What does this fold into?
Amino acid sequence: MSVHVSEILTLIVTAALAGCAGNPRCPDIPGGPRYCLQATSAVTPYVALQDIRIQRGDLDERLIAQLEVDAAGMHLAGLTPMGQRVLEAHFDNREATADSLAGDRFDARALLSLVQIAVWPAASVRAGLSSGLGEDWELLETPALRRLLRDGAAILEVAREGEPPRYRRLDIRLPGAGLSLTVQGIKEDD
It folds into this structure.
């Protein structure tokens, strides 16, 4: 498998192509509403090292990510499996910023939104979606599955294994973008 940094960045969140004119706290979700990042106090502080598999059509790539969440905010750093830095995204509980090798073609802040939609408590996620939710949007959840629906159709689905907030595995599907991400925790040796 070859790693194509520009393809990974374009692929991770296809519809998160930079629409930077909006609120830097509220990046667009692929095929869905704008999500406004919520305070990190909604979850217990944690650090997670993750192996992310990104699939879209014939493309199947990997990214290694380190996610740090604490009372001051959240920070996500992404590397290729060979250790080349691909992206960084940070949210200080007021504003989200990002830096990626794709420049203006990719809004890495959307990855922070996907993390929150997958992991944060439902009430916080609903608050983050409220500015983009209308009568035709709905957030449904069971302990193992969270779904964002529009007119009854799934816009985003997150299957979860393990305990929050540091799930062992997350399967994130964005049917409208033809995109799926599999996020597996990597155990660090003590």
User: Anything to note?
Assistant: The first strand starts at residue 46 and ends at 56. The chain has one domain: 5-185.
